[in-house]
Write a structure and sequence with these properties.
Layout: E1 3-4, H1 13-16, E2 22-25, H2 45-57, E3 60-64, H3 69-76, E4 82-85, E5 90-93, E6 96-99, H4 101-104, H5 107-118, E7 129-132, E8 137-140, H6 150-159, H7 162-165, E9 168-172, E10 175-179, H8 186-197, E11 201-206, H9 211-223, E12 228-234, H10 241-246, E13 249-251, H11 254-265
Parallel strand pairs: 1-13, 2-3, 2-11, 3-4, 11-12, 12-13
Antiparallel strand pairs: 4-5, 5-6, 7-8, 8-10, 9-10
Helix pairs in contact: 2-11, 8-9
């Protein structure tokens, strides 16, 4: 059973006191409050300052987001972190950009399909936000009226479009996303980072359906005794219960995450 983090901080002492620990975190809903639109979300100066200090304390601090990697970098604004965008399809380290070559092949198709979707019958649903993220394309329905069933209409439209069916259709918090049909998620990316940096202890924080892939991968690696990990879910009413089951601990919001960062630094 997933436990409330602040009732079990003793379990995290081994991470807190080891400089080889790596801290990996999502952005939206984790270190930034969920906002009505992607561009209005912010990372506060308080969180930013803690990330700077954590970077000095631990071997690696990485930000892993569904946003484009450049957008993630601009939003967080901390030098020296590893930035991972579009669910692991882009990396930015020391201003050096690396994209998944298989995913890159679909960039033109994603852009073409996204433009078509934006001009389809979906455009008549009030409150939809269409976001071109380069390698991926998101349709946000947070501002739509739930009585219009925007999620079902978006999914039906995409599944009925032959071009969309050639891509991967996935979901997040109040959004549906088109992705390249390549084997790449937060779990595979976590695994790659662990291998590349030879990590032994990992703390991961996330708040969404896509973070369950990371939770599951960490659980798998821990069972194989390859690493020691602590996965922290930032709880909300918008995610399915199975996501919580995969995490080690939960917290109740971004304020709790900031409080946890402060505890790690004390």
């Amino acid at each position: 059973m997933t436990k409330y983090l602040f009732n079990n901080l003793k379990d995290l002492e081994t991470f807190k006191n080891d400089p080889s620990t790596a801290l990996l975190t999502d952005i939206d809903g984790t270190i930034s409050e969920i906002a009505p639109t992607p561009e209005t979300a912010v990372v506060t100066n308080s969180v930013r300052e803690k990330l700077v200090q954590l970077k000095e304390k631990f071997s690696l601090v990485a930000v892993i987001s569904g946003r484009s990697v450049k957008n993630a970098r601009e939003m967080v604004g901390v030098e020296g972190l590893l930035y991972v965008g579009n669910h692991g399809m882009e990396f930015l380290k020391d201003n050096h950009l690396i994209r998944n070559p298989e995913a890159e092949k679909y960039r033109f198709q994603i852009k073409k399909v996204g433009k078509k979707v934006k001009n389809s019958d979906l455009s008549h649903i009030n409150g939809l936000i269409f976001e071109d993220k380069g390698i991926c394309y998101s349709i946000h329905y947070r501002l739509s009226n739930p009585s219009e069933n925007p999620r079902d209409k978006i999914l039906n439209s995409l599944h009925n479009d032959p071009e969309c069916r050639e891509l991967e259709i996935s979901e997040g918090r109040q959004l549906v996303e088109l992705k390249p049909p390549v084997s790449c998620d937060k779990g595979t990316i976590i695994n790659n980072i662990i291998e590349q940096y030879n990590l032994q202890k990992v703390i991961y924080l996330g708040d969404d359906i896509t973070d369950s892939d990371a939770f599951n991968k960490l659980n798998e690696l821990e069972k194989k005794r390859k690493i020691k990990s602590a996965s922290v879910l930032v709880l909300s009413s918008e995610i399915p219960s199975y996501v919580k089951k995969g995490s080690s601990f939960f917290v109740n919001g971004v304020d709790d995450v900031l409080k946890f960062f402060q505890w790690l630094l004390n």
